[in-house]
Write a structure and sequence with these properties.
By secondary structure, this protein is an alpha/beta fold. The longest helix has 14 residues. The chain has 13 helices and six strands. The protein starts with 9 loop residues before the first strand and ends in a 12-residue tail after the last helix. The chain binds adenosine-3'-5'-diphosphate (A3P). It is an enzyme of class 2 (transferase).
Amino acid sequence: ELITMTDDYLWFEGLPFPVIGYSYEVLKEAGSQFVIKDEDTVLVTYPKSGTNWLVEILCLIHSHGDTKWIQSVPTWERSPWIETDEGYKLLNEREGPRLMSSHLPFHLFPKSLFTSKAKVIYIMRNPKDVLVSGYYHWTMAKLCKQPESLEQYFQWFMQGNVSYGSWFEHIRGWMSMRHRENVLLLSYEELQKDPRSAIERICQFLGKKLTPEELDSVLKNSSFQVMKQNKMSNFEMVPEALFTRPFLITRKGISGDWKNHLTVAQAEAFDKVYQEKMAGFPKGLFPWE
Ligand code: A3P
């Protein structure tokens, strides 16, 4: 009831969130009271970094390559969102070990994480690709303010005036966790380049031993082509009230699509801000640099 307009955001702690599916109360309670348990696996991303892909991979690893789960239950029920009204409720009712997703920035994340041994996977992606992917997503989503052009979305993104706030702040905050034993840092780019190795790293991190055949199945069934056909994973199931049709989360699935979208001037402006905001990180940490 706080905000019901679909052309705006829900503001929480100074950050914009989607209006539909979110509430001030749940965002507040999740951050302060939600209990993350040692046996949980938590997937953290900035929106459009490959969240749904990772959920598919994690579910397939969990089921040793069996596809029953991913073919019968939608992504958001397999790995509920901590900060959404529906996800928060689902998680509170669920027995452990739980799989859960979140886009929350570090400073708004449930405090219980810091004393738990839960396994955290953070997946990052070239921010220019995140921007382009986000432009398509938020243009189709009827959940909050919709951009009218890429140029307009570009301005919003650079200022952090998009759902979940600034990409730069998100990554800066979460990078502070990267040396923890229970945190695995992955990139969309390395998953693209060598998915088998990336999936092996995930298995090792989770302490899951898969046979070569099981691993083959994880690889095949989480591939872009197969995922695009899975209506439990491609967003075909999302009600039309929430997304303009046709909308699939599996849009293009490549690295470097920004080159087909951003002008030279935009790319240069982006790089300038990037250099200012991302100064101080070690070389080699980010695969897109
Ligand atoms: P594009 O819009 O660039 O195609 P999220 O799940 O965090 O919303 O991220 C969505 C992005 O991940 C989309 O990027 C989507 O195509 C890509 N994606 C989803 N499944 C994928 C897969 N199996 N392989 C590669 N990319 C995938």
